[in-house]
Amino acid sequence: LMELAGLSVSQAVFKLHPPSKGSRVLVACGPGNNGGDGLVAARHLWHYGYKPTIYYPKQSKNELYQRLKKQLEDLTIPFENDFGKAIGETDHIVDAIFGFSFSGEVREPFPSVIEALEKTRIPVLAVDAPSSWNIETGPPESGPGRQYSPDALISLTAPKPLLKMYRGRHFVGGRFLSQAMAEKYNLDIPPYEGLDQVVEVPVEGRNL
């Protein structure tokens, strides 16, 4: 599923920001599954002709994530530890820091990263959730992320309740959902076309 999720993210980037608009993509990865999706997306983006850079300050020791990292290293995709430097040298950003399972406080080194995402004018695509947002209630009432609203969001498998508080461009990706599962939970399956793993859907009027 992570491989398909990352492929979906990469396709959303391609639709939002094709290489002709600027090939440099900064992929900010957290230590969990959301970060893993970002690592997979970066590999696909490289094969599409982009020049990805990875910000991955808290690297998981899990063998799966280590293998994903090794695949990027084998492609000589650079890892950058200075987010401020990296954000000044990119054309597009993928926020794959915190996703579906995030709760609690934003811990170092991510508060300053999320504050930078709040302020940047560079287009940002968030994976499953804007980092720091609660999956149910949306942006935090205070602290990092209170005013963060990325340009685009890709919901993996299905939209999450936080979508009610989001107003940017919205994609659904993954094609994971069976018709039976969708009917059980009263979810809409969007009309994917051909080989596409993503489809852009309006924020309003969708069953969550």
Give a topology summary.
Blueprint: H1 2-16, E1 24-29, H2 33-48, E2 51-55, H3 63-74, H4 83-87, E3 92-96, H5 110-119, E4 124-127, E5 152-156, E6 169-173, H6 179-184, E7 198-200
Parallel strand pairs: 1-2, 1-3, 3-4, 4-5, 5-6
Antiparallel strand pairs: 6-7
Structure in words:
This protein is of the alpha/beta class and about 210 residues long. It has a single domain, classed as Rossmann fold (3-Layer(aba) Sandwich), CATH 3.40.50. About 30% of the residues lie in helices and about 15% in strands. The protein is built from 6 helices and 7 strands; from the N terminus they run αβαβααβαβββαβ. A 7-stranded mixed beta sheet has the order 2-1-3-4-5-6-7. Strand 1, helix 2 and strand 2 form a beta-alpha-beta unit. Helix 1 crosses helix 2 and helix 2 runs parallel beside helix 3. It is globular.
Summarize the structure.
With 208 residues, the protein is of the alpha/beta class.
